[in-house]
Structures are given as C-alpha cells and as structure tokens.
Amino acid sequence: MERITLGRMQNPVRGFLHGSAAVASIVGTAFLVFHAWGNVAHVVGAIIFGVSLVGLYTVSALFHSVPWRERTRYWMQRVDHSMIFVLVAGTTTPIAIAALDGGARIAVLAAVWGIAAAGIVIKLVAKRSLTWLSVTLQLLMGWSAAVWLPALFDQFGWTGVWPVLAGGALYTLGVIVYATQRPLLAPRIFSAHELWHTMVVTASSFHFVAVWQVL
Questions:
Q1: Helices (H), 100-189
Q2: Is 55 helix (H, G, I), strand (E, B) or coil?
Q3: Domain range spanning residue 149?
Q4: Are the C-beta atoms of residues 49 and 91 closer than 8 Å to each other?
Q5: Is 7 domain-assigned?
Q6: Which of 51, 97, 138, 215 could cysteine-pair with 45, CB 3.0–4.6 Å?
Q7: Does the CA dihedral 45-49-54-55 come out positive or negative?
Q8: What is d(CA 90, CA 69) in angstroms, rounded to the nearest whole number?
Q9: φ/ψ (deg, to 5) at 186
Q10: Distances from the Cα of 84 to the Cαs of 10, 46, 87, 136, in angstroms?
Q11: What is the pLDDT of residue 8?
Q12: pLDDT tens-digit profile of 16-31?
C-alpha cells in the first residue's frame, strides 16, 4: 500500500513530529541550563542531555523529510540510528551526575558512553545492519538504570524515579512496536513506525521531566 506523501516529503508525519521535537528540545535545553545554573557539573549534564536531544531529533527530521539520493539516504539512516545511542547516554549523564559521586559516577558514565561508542561504530562501520545487536546494546544501556536507581531514589524519592521508569517503559514498549511493526493502524498515514516515533518523543519528554527534577 502506497504511503501518503506531502510534496517531496516521503514521511511527513515523522518529519513534522521530530522537527517539532527538535525545536522544543532547543527551547527546553535553554530552560534546563538556566534551571541548573550555579552548579557546573549540573550545567554540563544539562548541556549534554540537551545536545543529544536536539541532535537526535534534528537528524531524524532531516532523514525522514528530505528526498535524499539513495547513497546519501543510506548513510543518513545509519547516522539516524546511531543517534539513539547518543540519546540514551546523553539522558543517563545528568541523572548519574546528580545521583552518584566519586567512582560510582565515573564507572556508570564510562560504561554507558563506552557502550554508546561501540554501538555507533557498529552502526556506521558494519556492512550488515546487525539490528539485533544494536537493540540489545540500547536496551542494556537503558536498563543499566537499575544500577543507579536506588541512589536516585535515596536522594529524590519517587519524584525523581517515576519519570525515569515511565520513559524507560515507553522506550522498551516502543522497541517491541518497532521490531514487530505492529499495530498497523492506518498504514498510509500513521502506522507502527509512526507510533514508535511518537513513543520515543513521549519517553524523552518523561526523561526531560526527570532531569529537571534532579538538577
């Protein structure tokens, strides 16, 4: 079934959704940095989180909106998928900075960014997509939160924990939707892939709330 397009945009829903999210992320990052102002570590965490949000949504909006030539589209898709690793690590960074200190903080950040770097290399270099490995690494990064959630709860209670859990649950459910490409919904306009993108935006919004609460 042929999808409905808008002008030269092949995926208008995805393009507009992530384009809007990119703009909202720029504004949100500015407010977040102002909110964290006065604590250098918190400001750095806010900037890293904000850059990861803006980067992912900007790349995704461009990938899904512009009618790229086949070769360029191939590489844009790889960069788009690589940005998921950046976002997961970027989201973990300010929370780990706020909840942990000393060696525990260094260990968590080194592990998360190390896995992110490995995932990015796999996405950009591997001749095959290795989707199963990428998804496994992303879920491993995301649910490594189990390591620092107790410390987060000790400092901030459910106020800091519930948006982390809500976002993580949505991301995980979204992976299932993405992997199965179900439900089909309205295949020509808004199908499983659009639902996946919507869940990603919603999950990152929950995580924005979490970062705001702890910085």
A1: 102-125, 131-142, 145-180
A2: helix
A3: 12-214
A4: yes
A5: no
A6: 97
A7: positive
A8: 30
A9: -110, 90
A10: 22, 18, 5, 12
A11: 54
A12: 999 999 999 999 999 9
- In-domain check, residue 90: yes
Report the CATH number that the domain containing residue 152 is assigned in CATH: 1.20.1070
Identify residue 117 by its one-letter amino acid code: A
Dist CA 151 CA 147 (whole Å) = 8
- For residue 150, the tally of other CB atoms under 10 A from its CB is 11
Q: Return left, alpha or beta for 191; rule: phi > 0 is left, psi -120 to 50 is alpha, else beta.
A: beta
Q: How many domains does the chain have?
A: 1
Residue 104 placed within a domain: yes
Q: 3-class secondary structure for 81-123?
A: HHHHHHHHHHHHHHHHHHHCCHHHHHHHHHHHHHHHHHHHHHH
d(C-alpha 64, C-alpha 96), whole Å: 32
Phi and psi of 6, rounded to 5°? -130, 105
Residue of 27, 83, 93 whose CA lies nearest to 57:
83
Tally of CB atoms within 10 A around 158: 9
pTM over 0.90: yes
